[in-house]
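task queued by scheduler; priority normal; single chain, no ligands, no partner chains; default sampling; output format set to structure tokens
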Amino acid sequence: MATLEQQASKLLDFNQKLDITLLDTIVGCLYSTVGEQQRVAQDVLTALKEHPDAWTRVDTILEFSQNQETNCLTEIAGVTVSNYEEQFVALLVQTMEQLEIMLPLSTNIREAYSAGRDQEQVFIQNLALFLCTYLKEHGQLIERRGLTNTLMNALRYLVLISEVEDVEIFKICLEFWNALAVDLYKIAPCSHSSTLLLGKTMGRKALYADVLSSVRYIMISRMAKPEEVLVVENENGEVVREFMKDTDSINLYKNMRETLVYLTHLDYQDTERIMTEKLQNQVNGTEWSWKNLNTLCWAIGSISGAMMEEDEKRFLVVVIKELLGLCEQKKGKDNKAIIASNIMYVVGQYPRFLRAHWKFLKTVVNKLFEFMHETHDGVQDMACDTFIKIALKCRRHFVTTQVGEACPFIEEILSTISSIICDLQTLQVHTFYEAVGYMINAQVDQVAQEQLIEKYMALPNQVWDDIISQASHNVDILKDPEAVKQLVSILKTNVRACRALGHPYVVQLGRIYLDMLNVYKVMSENISQAISLNGIAVTKQPLIKNMRIIKKETLKLIAGWVSRSTDHNMVLENFIPPLLDAVLLDYQRTVVPDAREPEVLSCMGAIVYKLGPNITSEIPKIFDAVFECTLDMINKDFEEYPEHRTEFFLLLQAVNTHCFKAFLSIPPAQFKLVLDSIIWAFKHTMRNVADTGLQILYRLLQNVEQHPQAAQSFYQTYLCDILDHVFSVVTDTSHGAGLTMHATILAYIFSLVEAGRVTVPLGPTPDNTLYIQDYVANLLKSAYPHLTDNQIKITVQGLFSLNQDIPAFKDHLRDFLVQIREFTGEDDSDLYLEERLFALRQAQEEKRRVQLSVPGILNPHELPEEMQD
């Protein structure tokens, strides 16, 4: 019996009729076997694909092959070889002739697919792949040859296939429509451009006009759900709130959105016509359904920014009026929930329109307030999310007295705040408060702003004052679960208000600050007391959990405000002393490490970053309280207390960067602990901690050099030790991603020594350069005895001669590591990780640049602030 190789070779004999059964068998071997059989199948199919006469097999493959994996046509179509243009033209012409016999253009492919057997459905998918691949690679060749009918028929087939209810097939088609729309946009960026300027490009656009109109209709009818929409119809036909984000659906939406934006640029009037007609059919009931309304509104929201402002205004006035009318017209909670979610999505996507049309903005916000009382799942969440989006993008309009109004709208909101939020859940109230905070932040008159803040915080302050008043008579009220729960909510409201207001929040912070720190102290005592009586397990109880949340939110609030503050002296004189008294001693004397809040470390870090050298005098006090006790929590392994670990090293980095002089005034034993902790950091398995550790070490070495007296003592005591530890991570395969920083630090140390800036002897040899060269050589020799003396000599010489050129130094270091890994047989791909990440970042930046250059491609909420108005 003939071997598989002998049988397969018949496929390459173009004098014989193509054996389709054998072809299917070979393709099956490629996908379902391993070893020799798979290799033979791969070789034969590659040879078939690249054969200059492969195109002559098209009709037979199309007509008879039923194998799911038979993508030979697609493979052939994907080849780009300019000297085979005639064959490629013939490939499409023959394919289309054969296709029109098998599957006439009059066929309803969507219905045929739905009713078809598996092999027929596979055929449609393979046809989609072939047409998309061919047209992407050779479409312009067919255009140039003037084969308009053939090209248009191929595109019409793709339009019909795009209607098939199969998401994978749709994604194949979508990728092609996106590429075509981008290609046509590049030659004629805007449908508003002058015809005279466009010249010949109008010919290409006109050629595709009918097909693109059909594609617009499909995109609008099938638009995927955006991330912002929370109200959905489930598989049982019920209207519910979506809790799990569907990543596939979000990615599909982004691709469809981008495609529709480009299609709108190519002919905005056609997009508007289709959308307006479909909206009328929703209102008159001929196309009414939740699905149809959803896809239409998601499409309308997706093209924000793609029209000229005047066109957008005319279009949106109609859309918003019709949607508000539909909301009044339709009865039933589910109908209203769906319509409400669509109104909110559409208005949230058009901040430019709302900023320019106050009456619509006011109507929309009042409608959102109405939806905040609608208890249907998801509606209140969407109302609050949309409100905060609009508040961010239109903030100035709420604090200005608009034409026809007696006062700024913010005054109306603040005077009715209790009735607006009365039906909202706690988290929704927090979102609402942040939104209003952004509006107040836009008020530039300080006196007016302070008055607004007072009204704004009146409700939470009322409850706060009541609890504080009770606690002043009986401190045990701060053990009452309901009171503690209320304090948690009030502090979270304050955190959100501070995030939005920034520095001006100081008027509210000053009002509650000392009481808040007293509450912090009481909560600390309550927690310590509970732990001493009942053990650490008590921290899992709801009441103790909430007490800890009060402490965490207090620290978050202070850190958040300090990082946004603009008056360093005010912070330093009025806020820091009572904070350190309340927080530091409590952290240090908390016996159970699990009860220490990592937010203490992040708060101290934020203060150091913001106040810089001004806080240097307080660093010894901060270190005394948090340094050793935290280090003792994290130096046993690399896993426990990950939050404390991260924040501890960020605090250390802040002190090293902004208050280095404080390190020079601490006792030598404590400084050694600091250095040990930095070494511990860059040896970490947590990538963020290791990176922070390397950055701290590099900055520390630079800082030390600026203080000559301290520097020489530092070099004599620690430099060789640092070299040991850095080389230990350089050669550790789990730390390959830090290669650039490793190279930077080593080059810096070697350049210090070589330039004679280390004047104290580092070893028994008076010449420090020779000593360090020998030291490093011995280090490497003892770690890698398989290396020859010559290999080590060349490596060490390179480390010194290249220490002024970091990229060359890094390449030299990497060559050494590759040598080591070749010997041990370890993978060296991680040594190139940074280059791959850099290439990825560059590609992302280029993509972002292109997106910024095309109006509407970026979601309006992704646009930089300066591009808003």
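post-processing summary
- The chain is about 70% helix and 0% strand.
- The mean pLDDT is 86.
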